[in-house]
Amino acid sequence: MLRTTKKSVLTLSFCSLLGACSLGSEPKNEHHITLEQTVNYGFTNAEIVELGRLVLIDYYQFDTDSRNANPSFPDSGAFPRDSQLLDRYQPLANIQGRDKVDTDKEELYGHVWRDQDNASLVVSVRGTSDRQEWIDDAKFSHVELEIVANSNQTEEPTVEVELGFHEIERSFTISSQPGASERTPLASYIDAQSNVKSLTIVGHSLGSSLATLFAYKTKLRQPELDIRLLTFASPLTGAPSFSASFESQFKKSIRIVNRPDIVPKMPFPELGYKHVWHPLMIDSDQNKRVVDSLACHHSLNTYLHMIDNTVGLTKECTKPNK
Known about the structure:
This protein is an alpha/beta fold. The protein contains 10 helices and 12 strands. It has helices at residues 14-21, 45-64, 83-88, 131-137, 163-169, 186-192, 206-221, 240-249, 294-298, 300-307; strands spanning 3-4, 89-97, 107-115, 120-125, 142-144, 160-162, 173-175, 184-185, 198-204, 226-232, 253-258, 279-282. The chain has a 9-stranded mixed β-sheet, with helices on both faces.
């Protein structure tokens, strides 16, 4: 059950957000880390790039056929450049979600993977694809989460998160059979998995906030499960109450932020939002190859390129050679 704690729900257009956000800055946080420190928070730099590439596959599959919420699993035939990556990560299920709570229309949001190197699971979640998702990104109203926690937990936290993110995340289902119509809630599917050493959750943009919410709720249901969270270009997901509760549960969490990217600056902290830790700052303004545009600063390819320059920029975001 959800209770809105602000009556007004702002559904600003993305264009108006650009003007409002472009003057902002990354909210101050005393827990900044560097690329040299990522291993202390659960990830090697190589893993960060690999996990980001899984999200790129999520994007590609959605963009190829946005009407198909349960397509064939990605394989090396469709992704020859990622053949080694797909040798390690085996797709187990497609993840579906709904942008509007009052419709049955579902879209592909990502995948559940098995990391065959260490018997763990990975949940990858793509980001924004169209105007409706940007509107969901911009619903600045808080909702109070009714937490379904582990039965051994004596006191459940009271936290508030952003309405639009929560509406999409709570709609997540999976199908382990491409093309099938049957759906299982993503949370139930993960909870039913046995012999899993750990769970890694990764997202970009809107998908980062969805990943953050899913990681938090899963940790409360399964406090003994080793859960890592990696996000790129995450918006602010919840109120200070959420941030504080999240940080009491998670050490293995990295939030990668590109300084000129506007998305991590919204919803605005002045509206009662606070980021979760641990921010790792990069700056594509310092790379002469990256086109100086809002879209290019936000592109996942740009983020990955700034961490490992062997990952290519998109054509639209690469400056021509002089």
